[in-house]
Every structure is written in structure tokens, then in C-alpha cells.
Design a protein that fits this description.
alpha+beta; 6-stranded antiparallel barrel; 35% helix; 30% strand; binds zinc ion
């Protein structure tokens, strides 16, 4: 069993210990005592160094704590150093979670079902199917009040058989580690916590997400809350600058701009279609009828909406055949008027099949594709006749 120094003192940043076992050629080390917190209960592991060697991960292995190192140690006597900014951040988020969960239960009788601390934000899953903005404000306000009161957060070891009045009953037996926020909360927990609610700093609620009939509530505390607030301000400033209105009007202005863009997009599509139809009619007017009186046009370019509209406008005239050729990807479109004597579907199918491609359609309109540029020119020759 590893003696967990952080159980008694979460503020311990440096310690001395002795290697009692190791594995993986000395890169997995077990000490008699450690201040390194292993991933557990939603809180990620500590980082830092053992005698100057970086600790990459810390794992709880049934009572023993494994330290995964960058390199083997040279001595069995080690000096450990905890990455304090990472640890303190975890303590802020974790103690903030106790506060938030206690306030949720206290104000609205909402239980916390699970906790996860991420590297940017944390979240709890709570047993309720939603929270109104007014409730979210009340929760944040109450948390801020308890932070301002600087209530002591204490650790005690008590017997599970006693009447412990915990927020959430523990399934463990024997001695339990109880974390208390004065006059608010008692929870069984093995994590690292602050000594006063004051150190939590600001606690902001963020995203709400429905999940399996419950709600996932994202929150940030302390330095992370400052970082988020700063980022929010910068993003809002940028949006507000882009739409040239103050913050308060930015959302309405963005909505108006989106509406305007949609209207313009529709108008632009309508005009493009009108232009393509006009081009198709002009091409028809300019084309010279052959000996059978059939007018033909071949256009090269992407086979898109505009090309289709030109083709349809061209073959709206009598005795007309329109061929579109796209090089990337190698493909063709053939349109024919009903009186042209050409059945587009049959012609395309025969031509592209002969060139190793595939395609087809109806007598008036057909499309096909072939594997190569050479095959494409072959198809064009076959269809031009
Ligand atoms: Zn805890």
C-alpha cells in the first residue's frame, strides 16, 4: 500500500520517498509514500518530477500507486515535485464541483450522478431534465455567495458504520475520507481539495446538454473561469466589430445578416438560372442547322446547374441537340429535342459503354462518365456524329 500524502495535505508540493518496486525497465515506479494524485473519481492525475525525471502518468492500482516515468531513476531515494499549477487548477475544479453539487441539492433537490474533469472545462451529470436560465442564475449566485463567505473545507476520517449524513451515501465500508464544506456539504471523496471556498474563485455555469433523460452541466472555476470570460469577451468584441454594432445588438444584427444573405443567395440562384436559359436560347439562335435541319452545340465546362439550364433552353427549340463535356471528372451530358431524331439515353449508354464508362438517361436528357481523358474524347467523337 502506498502512503498517500495528499490525503492529509493537498498543498504538499515537494516530498521525499523511497522506491519499493519498479517495472518496465524502471519506467514504472512504486514508492513507499507519494504526493502524486492518480486519476480517480473524475479528477485527472498529477504531473511533475521524481528526482528531476518527468512523471507522465499516475495510476491507482488497487492500493498501490504507479508513477510512469520518462526515464529510469538513478537512486532509490527520490525527491518528488508536483506540477503545482496543474494540481491547484484541479483542486479549484474539484472543490468547485463539491460546492456546485451541494447547491444544486440544497436549492432544487437535484442530485449529482457523475463528475468528469476535462482539461478545458468540467461537467457533472445531474438528475433533472433541464434547468431554466433563471435557475442557472440562482445556482451561480448561491455559489458566488458561499465562495465570498470563505467557508472552511475540511478533511476527516470517519467510520462508515456511523451516521455520517453524507450528500450521497457511500458504498464503501470501513474508514471513509469525508470532505466537508462548513454548514453545507459532507461527501466521501479521495480527491484533492482546497482549504477554503474562497480559493475556488468564480464559478461559471456553461453549456447544458440533455443526456439519457438527465442533464450534463458544464462548469468552470478559478483561473479557468477567468480564461473563459476573457475569451468570451474577445470573441464578442470581434463579432461586434465585424457587424459594427455594440455587444447588446450583435446577436440581432447577425440574425439580420443571415436573413439578408439567404435572400441574396436565392436571388443569385434565380438570376444565374435566367442567365443560363438566355445563353441557351442565344446559342440556339446562332447555331446553323445541318443537312437534316438539326442544330447542334457542344459546350466544355463543369456539368452544373447552369450547364443543365443552358442545355434545356437549347433543346427547347425544335430539332436541337446539345452536348456538354466536362474534363474533371471526365463526363458528358447529352440533351435532345423530341423531334431531333436522337434518343439521348440510348446514344449516351452506347458511347460511354464502348469507352469503358457508364451512364444513361431518358430520350431527352442523359449523362455518362468515363475513366480517362482519352476515353472522354472518344465518346465526344461518337456523340458528335
Ligand atoms: Zn472531492
Amino acid at each position: 500500500m502506498t502512503d498517500r500524502l495528499y490525503y492529509h495535505d493537498s498543498y504538499l508540493r515537494e516530498f521525499r520517498g523511497h522506491v519499493v518496486d519498479s517495472a518496465d525497465e524502471g519506467r514504472r515506479v512504486y514508492l513507499d509514500r507519494t504526493a502524486f494524485y492518480p486519476s480517480s473519481g473524475g479528477q485527472p492525475f498529477d504531473m511533475g518530477t521524481l528526482s528531476g525525471v518527468a512523471v507522465r502518468e499516475v495510476i491507482d492500482e488497487d492500493g498501490r500507486i504507479a508513477h510512469l516515468l520518462d526515464a529510469p531513476l538513478t537512486s532509490a531515494d527520490v525527491e518528488g515535485q508536483i506540477d503545482w499549477s496543474r494540481r491547484f487548477d484541479h483542486m479549484q475544479q474539484h472543490t468547485g464541483q463539491h460546492l456546485l453539487s451541494a447547491v444544486l441539492l440544497d436549492l432544487f433537490d437535484i442530485p449529482t450522478l457523475s463528475f468528469h474533469m476535462g482539461s478545458v472545462s468540467s461537467n457533472i451529470e445531474i438528475g433533472v431534465d433541464g434547468l431554466s436560465p433563471a435557475r442557472l442564475d440562482r445556482i451561480e449566485d448561491r455559489c458566488a455567495q458561499i465562495v465570498a463567505e470563505a467557508r472552511p473545507v475540511t478533511v476527516a476520517f470517519e467510520d462508515s458504520a456511523a451516521d455520517l449524513a453524507l450528500r450521497k451515501p457511500s458504498e464503501r465500508s470501513g474508514t471513509l475520507r469525508i470532505i466537508s464544506i462548513a454548514d453545507l456539504d459532507r461527501s466521501a471523496c479521495g480527491g484533492t481539495h482546497l482549504k477554503s471556498t474562497a480559493e475556488i474563485g468564480p464559478l461559471f455555469l456553461r453549456k447544458l446538454e440533455k443526456i439519457r433523460g438527465n442533464t450534463r452541466l458544464e462548469f468552470v472555476c478559478g483561473s479557468r473561469a477567468f480564461a473563459h470570460a476573457r475569451q468570451d469577451f474577445r470573441v464578442l468584441s470581434e463579432i461586434s466589430r465585424l457587424v459594427s454594432v455594440p455587444f447588446e445588438e450583435a446577436a440581432a444584427q447577425v440574425a439580420a445578416q443571415i436573413d439578408k444573405a439567404k435572400t441574396l443567395e436565392k436571388l443569385s440562384q434565380k438570376l444565374a438560372a435566367e442567365l443560363a436559359q438566355r445563353q441557351g436560347r442565344e446559342l440556339y439562335a446562332a447555331a446553323q442547322p445541318d443537312a437534316e435541319g438539326v442544330r447542334r452545340a457542344t459546350e466544355r465546362g463543369p456539368i452544373d446547374e447552369a450547364m443543365r439550364a443552358r442545355a434545356q433552353a437549347f433543346v427547347a427549340g425544335s430539332k436541337a441537340v446539345f452536348l456538354a463535356v466536362s474534363e474533371n471528372p471526365p463526363s458528358i451530358l447529352l440533351a435532345a429535342s423530341p423531334d431531333s431524331g436522337i434518343r439521348a439515353g440510348d446514344r449516351v449508354k452506347a458511347a460511354v459503354t464502348a469507352a469503358g464508362g457508364r451512364g444513361g438517361g431518358n430520350p431527352g436528357l442523359a449523362q455518362g462518365s468515363v475513366p480517362t481523358a482519352a476515353a472522354l474524347e472518344e465518346v465526344v467523337k461518337l456523340l458528335a456524329v
